[in-house]
């Protein structure tokens, strides 16, 4: 009778995910850098209005969301592997991984909220606090 090796399969899938997500992240990051630094006026054009203009497009929202999620999952998986390799005691390993997962969750939830709820011109904001391109 063959035993199920769930942990072994998880580690295999984790290893494959790291390679695939790394390739996708390279494409996402270089695309992000190219658009932000090379197109138009380059780094001198990056300001609040530039970000507001980008996030007005669903394409860039999804692009940045994919970059955030993949980078966070990729990095969390890497740190999880390091914790598993170097933390000697089960309690230490459990505490470190709990803190890691908490940091992951907070970053992903807050980042996702920022991307999808970003409004450069909130309707009830005082006019002196609004960006110059907002109509009062």
UniProtKB/TrEMBL annotation:
Subcellular compartments: Membrane
InterPro entries attached to this UniProt entry: SQR/QFR_C/D, SuccDH_FuR_B_TM-su
Keyword Metal-binding among UniProt keywords: yes
Domain of life of the organism encoding this protein: Bacteria
Record Pfam families: Sdh_cyt (PF01127)
UniProt entry keywords in alphabetical sequence: Heme, Iron, Membrane, Metal-binding, Transmembrane, Transmembrane helix
Coiled coil regions in record: none
Keyword Transmembrane carried by entry: yes
Transmembrane portions of the chain: 12-39, 59-79, 99-118
Gene3D superfamilies: Fumarate reductase/succinate dehydrogenase, transmembrane subunit (1.20.1300.10)
Name used for this protein in its record: Succinate dehydrogenase, hydrophobic membrane anchor protein
Lineage, uppermost ranks: Bacteria, Bacillati, Actinomycetota, Actinomycetes, Micrococcales
Chain's gene name: sdhD
């Amino acid at each position: 009778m063959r035993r199920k090796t769930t942990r072994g399969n998880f580690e295999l899938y984790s290893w494959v995910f790291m390679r695939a997500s790394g390739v996708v992240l390279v494409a996402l990051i270089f695309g992000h850098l190219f658009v932000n630094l090379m197109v138009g006026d380059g780094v001198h054009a990056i300001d609040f209005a530039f970000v507001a203009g980008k996030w007005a497009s669903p394409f860039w929202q999804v692009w940045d969301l994919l970059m955030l999620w993949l980078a966070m999952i990729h990095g969390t998986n890497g740190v999880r592997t390091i914790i598993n390799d170097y933390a000697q005691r089960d309690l230490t390993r459990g505490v470190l991984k709990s803190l890691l997962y908490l940091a992951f969750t907070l970053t992903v939830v807050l980042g996702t909220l920022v991307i999808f709820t970003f409004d450069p011109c909130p309707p009830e904001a005082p006019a002196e606090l609004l960006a110059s391109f907002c109509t009062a």
